[in-house]
Amino acid sequence: MTATQERVRPDNAAGVTELVARCDAAGQKVCIVGGNTLEGMGFPPEREDVTLDMTALAGIVANERADLTIAARAGTPLRDVATLLAAQGQFVPFDAPQPHYATIGGTLAAGWLGPRRHLYGRVREYVIGSAIVLADGTIAHAGGMVVKNVAGYDMSRLYVGSFGTLGVLLQANFKTALLSPHARVFLAPLPEHTRERACAQLAALPIRPASAFWIEGFHNAVDGEDGAEGRILVSLEGSDALLERATRDLRSALGRAGVPDTHVVDAGAREAFERVVDAYVACLGERSITYRLFPFPDESARCARRLRELAGHFALHAESIVDVMNGDVVLRISDLDARALGSKIENFDDALHDAEPRAAVVAGKHSHRPFLRVWGEAPAAVDRMRALKRRFDPNGTLNPGRFVGGI
Amino acid sequence: MQTHLVMLVKDAAVFRSESTTMLRERLIEALGVEAVKTAPEDLAVYAFDAYTDGAPPSAVVLPASTRDVSAVVKIAREFGEPIVARGAGTGLCGGAVATAGGIVLSFARMNRILELDERNRRARVQPGVINLDLSRHVAASGLFYAPDPSSQKISTIGGNIATNAGGPHCLSYGTTVNHVLALEVVDHRGEVFTTSIDDAGYDLTAALVGSEGTLGVVTSAWLRLLAFPEAVRVWVAAFGDIDSASEAVSAIIGAGIVPTALEMMDSVITRAVEAAFAAGYPTDAGAVLLVEHAGVEEDVAAAETSIHAIVSQHGARSWRSARTAAERAALWAGRKGAAGATGRIAPNYYTQDVCVPRSRLPQALRAVESAAAENAVTVGNVFHAGDGNLHPLLMYDKRERKQVAAVVETGNAILQCAIDLGGTISGEHGIGWEKRDAMTRIYSTADLATMGRVRDVFDPARALNPEKIFPNGSRCPEVAPP
Q1: Residue A258 shares a structural domain with residue A354
Q2: Do A140 and B430 touch (CB under 8 A)?
Q3: CA B83, CA B101: separation in Å to the nearest integer?
Q4: Cα of A271 vs its chain's centroid, Å
Q5: Beta carbons of A375 and B457 less than 8 Å apart
Q6: Of A358, A369, B21, B246, which is least packed with CB atoms within 10 Å of its CB?
C-alpha cells in the first residue's frame, strides 16, 4: 500500500465521472469512501493513488410519498433518508451501524445485511433503480422509479454488495415500506441453562419479533449493564393491538424457557435496537477483531457456543451477538492489548475458518487484519466474479484488491 | 404478430440436412432416443410459447439431470447451435422461442422437488417443477411459495426464475428474485456452477434471476418458503367506473396501506369471468377491486376498516367480504383465469405488461382507454393495481388483418404512454423476443452496453437464448407487417 496522493470530494456527478475517467486513463487507482463506518470490511487496497470521498454527493433526488418510492444520491447519510421517510410513515430497513455517518452508497456497496431482514427483506429487495459511474467514466442507469420492472438484467441488484469494484454508485432509488406505529423492546438476563431453549422459543413465536438478540459481553453496548451475564434483547414492531398480543406471547415463551424477568422499554426502543447494530462493528481500540457468520437459525446458538469455546482455547476474550431470527453470529475477539492479540489472532483465524469457512471480518483496527481471511473462503463462482470485474474495470482502477479473492 | 406456420412447414423440410442428422445422432447417443425430438410435428409444437410468433428449433431435448443439460450444451456448442431453455411455454414475450434456431431444452422431465428443509423454510427444486405443485407439496408443513403468476397452475419454477415472475401477491411478498436463495447453473460451455445469496462476492443470483436464459441454464434452485399467515381475508369492492376504482387504489397506497394483493378488473373482464367461472364478481359494476390482506388477525381487521373507508370515500357502490375459504378460492380462481375467459369475447388477445408509478395509475388507465377507443379495439383490464402493473388485454381476431394492425397500434401507444408517465415496458412478463427493440426507448446505449458486459462474461458467443432482451436495431416486432 502506498501513501494516498490525492483526496477528492466532488459534489456533482460530473466531478466523479471526470475523476474516474482521468485516473483510469492514467493508470491511477481510486479508492471510494463514504462514511467510513464499515472500514473494517474487506482487504486494504492494493494501491491507493486517489481517495474518492463521496460524502458531498448527497441529498434526496425524489421523494414520491404517494408512490412509496424515494431516490437519493450515494453520499446521503442513512439517517437523513430515515428521518425524511419516518415523517411520512415510511422506512427502508437499512439497519446499518452508525446511520448518521453511513451513506447510501457505502451501505449498498458493502451489501450490509440488517437484523430485521427476516421480516422486511434485504435492502437489495428495496433497490429499484441506480446510476453508476463505470471505470471508463461512463454513466449507466438501471431500473427506475417503478416497483416492478423486469426490463433487462437487474443491474442495480448486482451492484449491491459489489464493494465499489464494478463502478461508483451515484444514486439509488428505493421502494419504501410502511413504518410500524409502535416499537417495544424487551430486555432480560439469560442464564446459561436457558439460552438455547430461549432462542428456539423466540424463533417459533407466532408473531415474529422485528429482531431478537442473545448478547454475551459488549459492555455498555446495549443496556448499560456490564455484560458479564448473557442477555436477551427482543424488539417488537406493529400496531397497539399487535404489540399487546405479541407481548403476552413473548412473556409466556420466555417463561417456558426459564428466563427469569423481562424488562419492557417503549420509549427509546428503536435506539436500543440501533445500539446493538452499532455494536456489530464496534472496536476495542486496536485490540479486537470482529467476525460475522451466517449459520442457519437453528444452528446459530450452538455455533456461538462453539466459537466462544474455540476462543477460550487460544486464551482470547470472546463476546458474541446471536441474531436469533436470521441466525447470524457476531463474534468479537479481543485481548489485553494489540500485541497480545497479534500473537494469537492469525492462528485463531485459521482454526475459526477450519470450523466455519465462511466467517468474514467486519471490524478491527489491528495491524494483522490484512493477513486474516477477511472474506472467508472464496465462493464457488469466484472465477466468474473475477471475469466480471475484468469486463467492468479492465485496468483494475476501482477499489483494487479490496474484495473477495483479491478482486 | 403474425404466425409463421407456412415457414414452419418449409423449415421442417429443410431440416433433414446432414449436419442436423449428425446433431440428432449425437444427442441421442448422449441422452437416449426418448429424450430427443426431431420429427417436424414435434418441432412445430415447440415453435411457440404464449406469444403470437413462433419459430421451429432444430431439435427439442428433454434432459433428466444436470449432467444431461451439460452434455447437451457441449454438443450444441460443437455444432454451433444456440440453446433455448423452456419451461411450460407460458411466457408472453417469445422468450422461449428458438428465433435463431437451435436446441430447445424442455425441463418437463426435471420436475422433482429434491429437498424440503422445513425448519429453515426452504426447498430445493428442479426447474421443471410447476409453481403451484411446490406450494401444494409444502402445504402440509404450513408453508407456501409466495410468487404466484396467474399461470401458476402450469408455469414452471425455471421459467419463473428466467423472467423474475411476479403475480398478485408480489405486492407484499416481492417478485421471484426475493425468493431464490441459491442456484445451480450450467454455463455456455456446459460447465456447472453454483451461486448463493449468502456467498461473499458479487450477487450472481440476482444477475441470473430475470436474465431470461441468456446467462446460463438453471438446473436446480433453493427457494424461500413462507409460513401460512394466521388470518387471510378477501374483499371485493365494486365501482361505477374504472377511473374511481383507480383513484381508490392510489388512495389506499397513498394512505400507507399495502394489502397482500390489490387487483383490479373492469367490466369487460368481470363479465367474461362470471360467464366462465361464476366466481362471485358483480357484473353490473364498471370496475371491481379484489383486495386481500393476510397476517395477524388484529392487523387484518384494522386493514379491513381502513380500506373499506377509503373505497367508500372514492365512490364504491358495494363492499363484500368473502365469508369462507371456498369463496376466497373462487374469487382468486376467477381472477387468475381472467385472461383465458376472454376467449368468449374474441378468439385472440394480446397483453401489455407496462408498469407505472402507482400514483399515475388513473392517468395510465385513461390513456389505455383512449388508445383502445382511437383504434376501435376492445380492451379488458385485469391487473396488479397495487404495483401499478397494468395488463390491458387487447382483443382481436388474428385472421382479420385490420384488427391485428389496430392491436399493434394500440399496444405501441400504451407502451409509449407508460414510458411518458415514468414507467417501464415490462413489470413482470419479461422482454423476450417481443420487446427487445423497445429497450432503446427506456435505456441509453451506455445502459444497454453495461448489461452487455454481463452477457459478455456469461455468454460471449451469444449462444444462450440469442435474439432476446437486447435490441436488434433493425427489427421492431411491434410494427412488423402482418
Answers
A1: no
A2: no
A3: 9
A4: 17
A5: no
A6: B21
